[in-house]
Design brief:
By secondary structure, the protein is of the alpha/beta class. It is built from 7 helices and 6 strands. It has a 6-stranded parallel sheet with strand order 3-2-1-4-5-6, sandwiched between helices. The protein is globular, with a radius of gyration of 16 Å. Bound molecules: magnesium ion.
Amino acid sequence: MRIAIDLDGVVFQFIDTYLQFINETHKLNISREQAKGIHFIRNFGFTEKQDKQLMREFCYHGKFRDLPLIPGALYNIRKLIYESKHDVIYITSRDPEAVEDTFVALFNLGLNGEVHFSDKINRKAHLIETLECDVMIEDRWDYLKEVKERNPEVTAILFNYEDQLEPLDDWRPDHYVTDWSEIYYILQTA
Ligand SMILES: [Mg+2]
């Protein structure tokens, strides 16, 4: 099987490091509970442009080079690659400024598969189609819904470890998991 894996919130713990960074650099005091949703920063007086600028600053500070791993991610991805012989690729919507650090981080972990970067034109749903993936593991409900709508045959696994992104009321994924061992089990029995 060809398995597409999102990076932030699935392989790497993102939100705690990002929150710490913006709190420190902009003298804010946003709590984890207040940091719900993709654009939570806009609830604190930041514009869309400033929101994007904060992410660029996070990139420029090299923060994507050494984000902490989600427990079990490395162990289970390696098992998928080397024991189960699945074809694993990574699809992320990280900014272009994060490309080099993304490759460095994955290389340092020994996760040297294909990496694809999505954006507003090259959407994840489109990449999943052109790359002929069978499975998508993702923590954003809106992305995964779009993937599934465009590619109904793809197994959509919603991975909610960070519990930061808002669920959709009108749509359910094929699988909803909070732990990497659950993902491994699903893919073994698929
Ligand atoms: Mg993500």
